[in-house]
Amino acid sequence: MPIAPATLPADPSPQVSAALKWVEGVASANFDLLASAIADDYEHVLQPASLGAPPIHGRDAVVQMYKNILPKLQGYVMTILEIVEGQGKVVVHTIGEADAQFGFHYKNEYLFTFNVVKQADGTHKVNKVQEFTDVEVTKTLMKAVGA
Q1: Cα(132)–Cα(113) distance, integer angstroms
Q2: Do 124 and 15 meet the contact criterion of CB atoms below 8 Å apart?
Q3: In this predicted model, which residue has the larger pLDDT, 101 or 3?
Q4: Burial (Cβ within 10 Å: 0-12, 13-18, ≥19) of residue 11
Q5: Are 93 and 82 in contact (CB under 8 A)?
Q6: DSSP letters spanning the chain
Q7: Average pLDDT in the 120-135 region?
Q8: Which domain of life is it from (predicted)?
Q9: What digits encode the pLDDT tens for the residues 1-47?
Q10: Count of domains in the chain?
């Protein structure tokens, strides 16, 4: 499994389960799993603002972004360091690591804040992610993938 499970809860809440489904979808490049974790009104915000990345709106757009990036990262593993849950929010602190096909070892630290909403059918899905990331590592990767 591409998630290092050191701190995964034994019996996660529906909110945490939705966030972990998103993380697993990204970590395993399982785009169907990722899409299934995302609500129709999804928004993805890459932070800090100094990166200058515009928000991404919609399930298809964010899935396409990851389809452009993840295949270029061989052996990608996300190690979860901490999970914090609040009303409607889950914060996941991770480290992502892989060998990039651009000739460098990719290692980035992330702090994902997930807004999780209960759907009409009773399931929980992610409708917003604020992704705080290492500026220098992210700029290097964005330049390498042409973003």
Answers
A1: 8
A2: yes
A3: 101
A4: exposed
A5: yes
A6: --EE-TT--SS--HHHHHHHHHHHHHHTT-HHHHHHTEEEEEEEEEESGGG-PPPEESHHHHHHHHHHHGGGEEEEEEEEEEEEEETTEEEEEEEEEEEETTTEEEEEEEEEEEEEEE-TTS-EEEEEEEEEE-HHHHHHHHHHHT-
A7: 94
A8: Eukaryota
A9: 355 555 677 789 999 999 999 999 999 999 999 999 999 999 999 99
A10: 1
Note the pLDDT tens digit of each residue in 54-63: 999 999 999 9
Residue carrying structure tokens 């061989």: 74
Token look-up 């990767």 returns 141
**Structure-token pair, residue 52:** 């200058």
The CATH number assigned to the domain holding 102 equals 3.10.450.50
Most confident of 71-80, 96-105, 114-123, 127-136: 114-123
